[in-house]
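pls ignore typos typing on phone
S-adenosylmethionine + seq
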Amino acid sequence: MSGIKSGKTNSPFRYPGGKFYARKLILEMIPENVDLYCEPFSGGASIFFALNADRTVGSSILNDLDSELVNTMTVIRDEVDNLIELLHGIEATKENHTFYKKEFKPKNNLEKAFRWYYLNRTSYSGIMNMKNCYWGYGEKYSMTPERWPAHLRQVSDTLQGVNLTTKDFEQVIDNLPDGTFCFVDPPYFNADQDKFYTCSFSDEDHLRLRDALKRNAHRIKFLLTYDNTEELIDLYRDWATAILDKEWNYTIARTDDQKNSKMLKDGFKGKRSTGKEVFILNYHPLVLSTSEDDSEPESEPEPIQEPEPIQEPEPIQEPEPNPEPKSEPSESKDEDEVCKDLSLLSQKYNIEFDRLPKILRNPKVLPMIRGISFEHTAQKSLSEILPTKEYSVSLPNLNPQPGDHDPDIEIEKIRTKEKKKVECKLAGGDSYSEKHPTISEMKKSKAWKKVNHKSNLKKKEQIREALEEEGYEYEVVRSIKVKCHRSRPSNSGSGNKAKAEEYGISTKQAKAHSDNYHETDFDIVVASAGNAFYSSAGNEDKLPSFQPSLEAKKLLEESGLDSISLNGVIFAARSSDLAPSIKKPCTGKDCKKKTKCGFIPKNPVIELEVVDGKLMPKAPWVKIGEIEKLL
Ligand SMILES: C[S@@+](CC[C@H](N)C(=O)[O-])C[C@H]1O[C@@H](n2cnc3c(N)ncnc32)[C@H](O)[C@@H]1O
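k done
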């Protein structure tokens, strides 16, 4: 059991009962320094991968009785290149799935791993029990085969040095060295888990587990997750140190009604339920909250799927790894789930369900949706970037009224309870610009003496070209602007009066800044850069589309960005750093305190540069990944 490399990736498998969505709740319960980490029921080992993405762990043991699963992990660890070679060029199709499930006969461990991995990635909910292993792949929400190799390599990296075993849990727990931390995630007590796992669990196994944990409790630390059942809790009540209720939702099988889209009429009743789980520990965790996962209010709860034995179910949403470091899989719902929610919403608010797409495309509606959507994107990014033990990131107001001061996002330092308000803004449409030196600036250069006799030099470009021939160098200032003003100005008399009182300023001064934010309205602005390259010019539907100018295209090329990857480009700055100063006075026409009015410009500028092929903002802006500097 040598030390393992710290990696940043997710489980290689889709796995029923996987704890991906509960990772934040679980990680905050795991003690700070873990020398030896063990999962006796590792399955897809989502907590192992989350832990390694979060911190450095001494060494690890992953065990599961399912030998095919462990063989696949082992092949990924030891011969990932061979596995990738076998997978090369394979397509995710139902025909292939059926072939590898029913006909293909693997000849060795490598081929076994290849078959298992392929079926797992293309099966409904990752259920590998062959009776219930159905084709379930969705191009839109499953990891596509082209992305498998890179992900497998990251997984392989993380698995280096990990001890992978195929034993019964009892043998593992009894032989753990003293001081081991054990994350114990057995099959559920109540679920019909014969359907999920190749190795199922009997009532007697649950008792064996209780006994094994009890007799080793004096020398190891364990965190056990279970379904919240009185009968089960009774097994631990008398001797466990903490039994914490945790709530999250789970999804039960699609019914025939749902599949036949009858749910659109009947409101999809009965599909989602709230389940209760318990965390049972034999030590005092750092965090003792017994409530729902409030550090991650936006996260989609862990789905537990029960496949239908006769008809083949549709694919489900799965967590997908993202190529960017630190980023995590999408937590969006599958399409049916979204449909269900929208259907219920339409019924409740009397919206024509079939016209929703058209309604969403309405130019009055779409900009607002894009703004709110960015709040969700930013909240998700921030909760992935900031250490979960130190910060909680929430969307306190899901329905902000334009013009009020409720923060879009709130970042709370868990230890001090200090809160920071975050305002989310999009870059102004089509706001990318490049500033070349002005004629008067060029005329101040040394090279000007050499070219000023040329009488044909009239236009700015001509002067610049002539100067360049004489070795003139200058910096092109590349920038975007952020739309950072109130959509509902305080223009009326009483509005300005209230504003004046709020900020302790004169009514005139309030009027001069009727649509500006004040630096005290929030602490940090996060800005989505992408919109700067969108424009509605020339679009019949008046909706913005990705249309970078020639100059902008060059910038994006230099920084390796396209319309999709641009979505992840988010910058942040302190509001106080954006407020006017002696160097950058307020440009408000009627402002009486130009250098210290405290009002943020309506369109703060983000200067950009490309450093080592990456798009970087200049101070006071930072990339969102560095937000901790601003907190
Ligand atoms: C709830 S799953 C674990 C999920 C995992 N925590 C994850 O995030 O993917 C339970 C696992 O226990 C395994 N298992 C069942 N009986 C076992 C036994 N007697 N010893 C060890 N593992 C067993 C199953 O194969 C299954 O993979």
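The first strand starts at residue 36 and ends at 39. The pocket of S-adenosylmethionine is lined by residues 15, 17-19, 40-41, 43-47, 64-66, 168-169, 185-187, 197, 199, 201, 205 (CB under 6 Å). more later
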